[in-house]
Amino acid sequence: MRHLLSTRDLSRDQAVAILDIAEDMADVAGREVKKLPALRGKTVVNLFFEDSTRTRVSFEVAAKRLSADVINFSAKGSSVSKGESLKDTAQTLAAMGADAVVIRHGASGAPRVLASSGWIDAGVVNAGDGTHEHPTQALLDAFTIRKRLHGEASRGKDLDGVTVTIVGDILHSRVARSNVWLLTTLGASVSLVAPATLLPVAIAEWPVSWGYNLDAAIDSKPEVVMMLRIQAERMNAAFFPSAREYSRQWGLDDERLARLPASSMVMHPGPMNRGLEISSNAADSSRSTVLDQVANGVSVRMAVLYDLLSGTSDLSGTSGVNA
Amino acid sequence: MSIKIVGATLPDGTRTDLHIENGLFVESGSASTVIDADGLVALPGLVDLHTHLREPGFEQSETVLTGSRAAAIGGFTAVFAMANTLPVQDTAGVVEQVESLGRSHGYVTVRPIGAVTAGLAGERLSEIGAMAQSRAAVRVFSDDGHCVHDPLLMRRALEYVTTFGGVVAQHAQDPRLTVGAQMNESALSSELGLAGWPAVAEESIIARDVLLAEHVGARLHVCHVSTAGSVDVIRWAKARGVKVTAEVTPHHLLLTEQLVAGYDARYKVNPPLRSAEDVNALREALADGTIDIVATDHAPHPLEAKECAWDEAANGMVGLESALSVVHEAVVGTGQLAWADVARVLSQAPAQIGLLAGYDTPFALGNAANVTLYDPSARRDFSVSDLRGKGVNSPYLGRSLPGRVVTTIHDGYATVLDGELVDQQTVAAAAQEVRHG
Amino acid sequence: MTARPVLQAADITRALTRISHEILESNRGSSDLVLLGIPTRGVVLAQRIGAILDGIEPGTGSVGSLDVTMYRDDLAKNPTRAPGRTLIPAGGVDGKTVVLVDDVLYSGRTIRAALDALGDLGRPRAVRLAVLVDRGHRELPIRADFVGKNLPSGQSERINVRLSEIDDTEGVTIE
Asked: How big, in percent rounded to 5, are the helix, strand and coil portions of chain C?
């Protein structure tokens, strides 16, 4: 893999391959020496134009577990905030010898511009661009679902027939977009629930079913319910009248949690607004995968960095070379 | 200076010779310069009703000189320069300065456009009367870049401009519906995560404005029409007898929003590239006269304004150098427009709307000699070497386009010969001779 | 370029049986023995040896796998390789005698990687190496403790090991 910019670009086999490598990477976390030498001598740069401690740290841990060197470039207090352009920042990193650039940017498409510009030679990983995509989040969500469903027997499996309902601000959510493409590629059946103001234009052309009513969605007993964070600022642009109304209509409260089958899992990419889109009980229940998602994030990001950096080209999937 | 053009094919198809002396078309005469126009189409000098020359204030993007040169190589002999300069063209002083620069450089006739509101702020009218009566004789008024969105202000503007025989050219974009908009609102914008610019934001303003124009009996011109819905509104208004005219850019006749998918900011423009259905509706409207003219909306930007993330990039494309070829490709090649129609939409009609004298009857004896010779047979890959302005933000780089401007003659002297610009000193001298000769 | 048979199915069985006895003899019994096969065919061989050991002294055959992909010294020179599974039996490797099992010993680099991988997993009391075929041409100072067959070979020759658990046939050929 040369770059990971979107889950739209991943085929089913590529996605399963990454999830399988992530299984092996997860094993490393259980050892005393939580390191593999695979990326020794490689330099990974975290280029974060948007604040995000959790994602940045997740990538940092992933890179370090593979013995790579990590450089953190965050927007605040750096030349970036003084108005240095994306182009100049990228070329500075190239001059420093970055092998991979993990970029989070407020503008949709910035990772694509970086990857196709010719300013750098490094592999580019999209850690979230505007409202467009957040591919490693979708991968760790898929990994989490697969792990919860199949446990130790997860390797090689996709998500065929799994029912997933995503609830919240779909319009502005890069997590939703990445998940829609990836989960459907893996064979899952995806359904979206939101007020009409928060559903994208031309939603009918997406490979999903959709509706406005969360209660109806819960009564259809989905195996996975994924709650998205709602931003209060959206109220000012008249997407919904108030936090209270939003919470009543589309929040996963205790009553809805109780109606959800015991085997269903509750997911949230974080950070959570407890009491707004998800109740504390729902967030802390045994059905919640929130902490798993965080842990799995490191394994999945290790798999992505390994695939991007360890070899000369794409995942061959074979290991039959004479030694 | 006297020129004889031999064997030119006029827009109506007839072959003829053209004689030019002392800046005017004449019946016949000896010629110091003879141009062989065999196989070339002779068009009346092209007139662009919508250009951004950027001077004063944004000379890093373009100047009156570089913009004029870009216009000349594109076959233009007159351009109307939009008012969003710095300082804004909202006083007699600034418009006279721009007009004077154009006149002394001499490549094209520069007609400054006056701002509708002071500073383009949309609060109060600018000194429209002063600009109309200045040496620049402004007749077209526009806040282009911004919409005159306050309905009361738009009404007053339409009325007041009538006092001086002018026309308001509206940039139709409801600001409340397009906050932070980046591209056409569509399935693609949903997928790409770019804020949408819905067609209704253009159509609703045009609908309001044609009714206002009808109510106060004023002329209205609509800039860069980009949607099928807008075409429907204008068609309806014209049928009612509203005095509305409309323009379409070359890029809206050829390019669609699909080009945005790679986030290459060369394709970022306002109004945005739209769907294939919109492109087809615009072509048909140009053919049937619902849209009166083609205007380039030539909008040069420096490199750093386009070599960045989409959200951060400036809106606009350069278009003077490529306009005729793109129109050829989009509507002449498809058989929807003949060369006589091209002469109408790129020369006679824009001059008429802008009240620019001397372009009503092409090649009429005694008129100022403005003529463009175009070779329709050539085909080339458009590249940076085809540009003459400061901006290289063209969406056609690397694209195969038909045709080539071979000669441009402005007020009886050549600004482009053998496909190349005549040098500055020669053109400036010729321009001065016409003024004083 | 026809393949010459070197070991038939029966030869392989005899070799593995002999190796199993040698392991028990050198270890003075079966306590604290852990067999780790190197994927892919090393794992099959380790399982067979483990079964044989279990037949001789029941409860002996503690078998797992050790994937060395991440520790290879040629990662950057080849297309990305998918790792295999590492499965350490309950009880781990600390203080145990680990017997690495592979099908062919050649340059020795795979075993070098295996030693590094093992080092990150714990501290065995001792590490031994059992291979079905030793074909020479060592590039590192590595030697096998238990060898099924010594097979001197030219560098241009290919040695193919086929095991019925994963291949259509059973046997070792050289071509």
From this structure: 30, 25, 45
Tell me which chain C residues have a C-beta less than 8 angstroms from the C-beta of A307. Answer: 80
What H or E segment, with its residue span, contains residue B421?
A: strand B420-421
Query: What pTM value is reported for the model?
Result: 0.87
Residues of B assigned a catalytic role: 297
DSSP H helix total and E strand total for chain B: 13, 19
Contact (Cβ atoms closer than 8 angstroms) between residue C44 and residue C37 = yes
**What is the topology classification, in CATH, of domain A7-133+294-309?**
Rossmann fold (3.40.50)
Check if CATH label 3.40.50.1370 holds for domain A135-289: yes
String of DSSP letters for C56-84: HSTT---EEE---GGG-TTGGGSSPPPP-
Supply the mean pLDDT for chain B. 96
Residues of A in contact with C81 (CB under 8 A): 310-311, 316, 318-319, 321
Has the ipTM of the complex gone over 0.85?
no
CATH topology identical between A7-133+294-309 and A135-289: yes
pLDDT band at A82 (very low <50, low <70, confident <90, very high): low
For the record, the structure tokens of B424 come out as 């500055």
Kindly tell me whether chain C and chain B come into contact, counting contact as 3+ Cβ pairs under 8 Å: no
Domain locations in chain A? 7-133+294-309, 135-289
Give B229 to chain A, closest Cα distance, Å.
18
User: A87 and B307: CB-CB below 8 Å?
Assistant: yes
| Domains observed in chain B | 45-360 (3.20.20.140)
Closest by CA to A39, choosing from A4, A72, A63, A3, is A63
CA distances from B223 to A164, B48, B141, B178, B199 (A): 47, 12, 11, 17, 15
| Min Cα separation C57/chain A (Å) | 31
Give strand ranges (E) for chain A: 43-48, 69-74, 100-105, 123-129, 163-167, 189-193, 209-211, 224-227, 265-267
Contact C79 A1 (CB under 8 A): no
* Chain A residues in contact with B264 (beta carbon < 8 A): 113
Give the gap in angstroms from C-alpha C28 to the nearest C-alpha of chain A.
30
Domain borders along chain C are 31-73+83-155
pLDDT of residue B1 exceeding 80, the answer is no
| Contact across the interface for B310 and A107, Cβ inside 8 Å | yes
Task: Please report residues of A whose CB lies closer than 8 A to that of C167.
Answer: none
Whether A250 and A278 have beta carbons less than 8 Å apart is answered as no
Is the Cβ of A38 closer than 8 Å to some Cβ of chain C?
Answer: yes
CB contact under 8 Å between A24 and C107, yes or no, is no
> Does any CB of chain A come closer than 8 Å to the CB of residue C107?
yes
Residue C30 in this model has a pLDDT that exceeds 80? no
Tokens of B422: 């005549």
Q: How far apart are the first and last CA of chain A?
A: 24
Q: Which amino acid is at C26?
A: S
- Kindly state the average pLDDT of the residues C127-137: 96
Nearest residue in chain A measured CA to CA from C157: A322
Q: What is the rounded CA–CA span in Å between residue A250 and residue A273?
A: 13
A174-185 average pLDDT score? 98
Contact of C156 with chain A, judged by CB distance below 8 Å, is answered with: no
Do A107 and B312 contact (CB within 8 A), yes or no?
Answer: yes
Neighbors of chain A with 3 or more C-beta pairs under 8 Å:
B, C
Fold of C31-73+83-155: Rossmann fold (3.40.50)
Residue B125 sits at φ, ψ, to 5 deg, of: -65, 150
* Cβ-based contacts of C83 with chain A (< 8 Å): 21, 24, 319
pLDDT at A235: 66
Q: Is the pLDDT of residue B433 over 60?
A: yes
Task: Give yes or no for a contact between A277 and A214, defined as CB atoms under 8 angstroms apart.
Answer: no
Contact present, A and C (at least 3 Cβ pairs less than 8 Å): yes
